[in-house]
Write a structure and sequence with these properties.
Layout lengths: L1 H27 L5 H6 L5 H11 L5 H13 L13 H36 L4 H15 L2 H15 L14 H35 L2 H8 L4 H39 L4 H11 L2 H29 L7
Helix pairs in contact: 1-12, 5-6, 5-8, 5-10, 5-12, 6-8, 7-8, 7-10, 8-10, 10-11, 10-12, 11-12
Length: about 325
C-alpha cells in the first residue's frame, strides 16, 4: 500500500509540473501583454515599459520561468496584478466555499444516485424503473445552472426558505449550511443522475454473471448476494465515476457560484480572466490540478479495498 501511495504521489507531482509548465508558457505566449491588459488600451508606451519592468516581464522568458518555479517551491504564488494582494491569500479566503460546494454536492450525488440506481436495477422494467429512468434522464438533460435557477426561484424567492445569494458566515455553522444547501443540491442532483444510471448498468451486468447464479444455487439469501457480491463490485465503477465527476464538479461549480452569488475559486478565476490577472489564474489552476490529482490518488487506493483482485505494480 505504501508503495502504491508513493508511486501515485510521484505521478501527481509529475502531472502538476507538466500543468504548471504548460500554463506558464501558454499564458505568456498567448499574445496578450499583461501590462497593457492592466493599464488599458490608452496606456502610453512608457507606462507599459515601466510596469513590465516592475513585474519582471521584461526579462527573458526562461528567467521568468525559473523565478516562477522557484517561487512555487517556496509556496509563493505571487501577487495579483490588479490589487497587489498575495494570490495564495486570495485563494485561501474563498477556497472553503468551493470545497463545501464540491464536497457536499458529491455527497448528495452519491446518497441519492446509488440507491436510485440500485432500485432501478433490481426493479428492472417495472413502474419504479421507468420513473427513475425518466427522472434521471430529465436531470441529465438540464445543465446544473438551470437546476440552480429552478431551486433558487422555488425555495429562495417564492417560499423564502433559504438565502438568495452569498456564501454566509464561515464561522457560523447555521449560516454556512443555509447558504450552501441549494447550491450543493443543484450540483448534487446533476451528479446523482449520472451515478444512478451507472449504478443501474453495473448492477444489471454483475447480476448476469455466472458466480451470481452459483451463489444463488448454493442457497445464499438474496440480501447476501446483493450486499456481498453485486453492490460491492458495482462500487468499483461508481468510485471511478465519483473520481471523474469530482474534477468535473469543481469546474462546474463556477456556474453555480455565479447563479447564487457565492464567493469561490470559480468566481475568482472568472474575474481574473476578464481583468487579465494571469498570476491569479495560474494560482487557481494549481489548486485545481492539486485537487484533481489528490482525488485520483484516493480513487486508486480505494480500488484495492473494493476489489482485492486489482493490484498495481
Amino acid at each position: 500500500m505504501a508503495r502504491l501511495i508513493l508511486s501515485r504521489l510521484l505521478l501527481m507531482f509529475m502531472a502538476m509540473f507538466v500543468v504548471m509548465t504548460a500554463m506558464f508558457f501558454g499564458i505568456r505566449l498567448g499574445g496578450t501583454d499583461p501590462a497593457i491588459a492592466i493599464q488599458g488600451s490608452y496606456a502610453t508606451a512608457e507606462s507599459v515599459a515601466l510596469l513590465s519592468e516592475s513585474l519582471g516581464l521584461d526579462k527573458p522568458l526562461w528567467q521568468q520561468y525559473v523565478m516562477y518555479m522557484t517561487g512555487l517551491l517556496r509556496g509563493d504564488l505571487g501577487v495579483s496584478l490588479q490589487n497587489g494582494r498575495p494570490v495564495l491569500q486570495q485563494i485561501l479566503q474563498v477556497l472553503p466555499n468551493t470545497f463545501d460546494l464540491t464536497f457536499w454536492g458529491m455527497v448528495i450525488g452519491v446518497v441519492v444516485g446509488v440507491p436510485l440506481g440500485f432500485i432501478s436495477a433490481i426493479k428492472r422494467n417495472t413502474m419504479w424503473d421507468q420513473i427513475i429512468r425518466v427522472c434521471t434522464l430529465a436531470s441529465i438533460s438540464m445543465p446544473p445552472f438551470i437546476i440552480a435557477y429552478l431551486l433558487l426561484i422555488v425555495f429562495a424567492i417564492t417560499f423564502r426558505m433559504f438565502p438568495v445569494n452569498g456564501g454566509g458566515d464561515l464561522d457560523d455553522l447555521s449560516s454556512r449550511a443555509s447558504h450552501l444547501f441549494l447550491p450543493a443540491m443543484a450540483l448534487g442532483l446533476a451528479v446523482a443522475a449520472y451515478i444512478a444510471r451507472l449504478t443501474r448498468t453495473s448492477v444489471l451486468e454483475i447480476m448476469s454473471r455466472d458466480f451470481i447464479r452459483t451463489a444463488r444455487a448454493k442457497g445464499l439469501s438474496e440480501y447476501r448476494v446483493m450486499s456481498r457480491h453485486v453492490l460491492k463490485l458495482a462500487w468499483v465503477g461508481i468510485v471511478t465515476l465519483i473520481g471523474i465527476y469530482s474534477a468535473v464538479s469543481i469546474g462546474g461549480s463556477v456556474a453555480i457560484e455565479l447563479v447564487f452569488g457565492r464567493p469561490g475559486v470559480g468566481r475568482l478565476v472568472i474575474g481574473a480572466i476578464s481583468q487579465g490577472d494571469f498570476t491569479v489564474i495560474q494560482g487557481a489552476i494549481i489548486f485545481y490540478a492539486a485537487f484533481v490529482s489528490i482525488v485520483n490518488m484516493i480513487v486508486d487506493v480505494t480500488y484495492t479495498f473494493l476489489d482485492p483482485r486489482i493490484r498495481y505494480t
